[in-house]
Amino acid sequence: MRSSCVLLTALVALAAYYVYIPLPGSVSDPWKLMLLDATFRGAQQVSNLIHYLGLSHHLLALNFIIVSFGKKSAWSSAQVKVTDTDFDGVEVRVFEGPPKPEEPLKRSVVYIHGGGWALASAKIRYYDELCTAMAEELNAVIVSIEYRLVPKVYFPEQIHDVVRATKYFLKPEVLQKYMVDPGRICISGDSAGGNLAAALGQQFTQDASLKNKLKLQALIYPVLQALDFNTPSYQQNVNTPILPRYVMVKYWVDYFKGNYDFVQAMIINNHTSLDVEEAAALRARLNWTSLLPASFTKNYKPVSMLLLGAVESSSRAE
């Protein structure tokens, strides 16, 4: 009996050690975040083991775990009709809000899910419930795009998928089928989905052949650039649970079908040459010391190889 108690105590202590991580005092429900982070870390470790054994790519294994525990069928309610279909060969889940006699044409949102271009699905519970809520509360038609993921495809195939599906949806006959007002269509997405939504929005703005245009862009914590991994938000959240900086950098590497050997160089902003005129011009556009207010920049300092070289030279001089 005593040995069982000792073993149980040891197991509880090990579990607490695995789950617990220090968090800022401003985080609400810290234990929920810790448990979610521990669950995700556990899934990553299992997928890495599967990859090591040569059974499957680690991202395929990780996404299988995520989708297996969260997949939801297209289930309609009295308020929202939900259907799975495809737009020009791209899978989509469509959520149709309740019709209103006083508003025969509905507004619409084309939604692109996040997940580092490699994980999640329009069909998992979180995104299904989000789009259902939007359809009901906005009296809208929500088109959630099931674009292809890394490692089955890489950049720019994800962009091609969302462009094809959205162009199909914007056809007059398709908008008429779903009773959508062509003047009230929004593009939206979170995280990597925000990146794809922004890319799509830029392309459509410049596409003179499109009869119907997007009216609004709503990006949710979008991933918009891969030149500077030391912005104030990256420095502040360098070890944030679930998505620390080095993991975000790895998602970028995977998206571009790159090599993990470059991860450390990217973390210290040494993945573009300061001697190349074009790279310098692009970096100038991301000069957050002038673009962001002091409430965001705080005491954070820009990181570049030029600055690092100056520090190293100063250290050698001393």
From TrEMBL:
Keyword Hydrolase: yes
SUPFAM superfamilies: alpha/beta-Hydrolases
Residue positions of the active site: S191
Keyword Hydrolase: yes
UniProt keyword terms in alphabetical order: Hydrolase
GO molecular function (one): hydrolase activity
Stored PROSITE patterns: LIPASE_GDXG_SER (PS01174)
One Pfam family matching this protein: Abhydrolase_3
Domain Alpha/beta hydrolase fold-3: residue ranges: 109-260
InterPro entries registered for this protein in UniProt: AB_hydrolase_3 (IPR013094), AB_hydrolase_fold (IPR029058), GDXG_lipolytic_enzyme (IPR050300), Lipase_GDXG_put_SER_AS (IPR033140)
Family per similarity comment: Belongs to the 'GDXG' lipolytic enzyme family.
Protein name (database record): Neutral cholesterol ester hydrolase 1
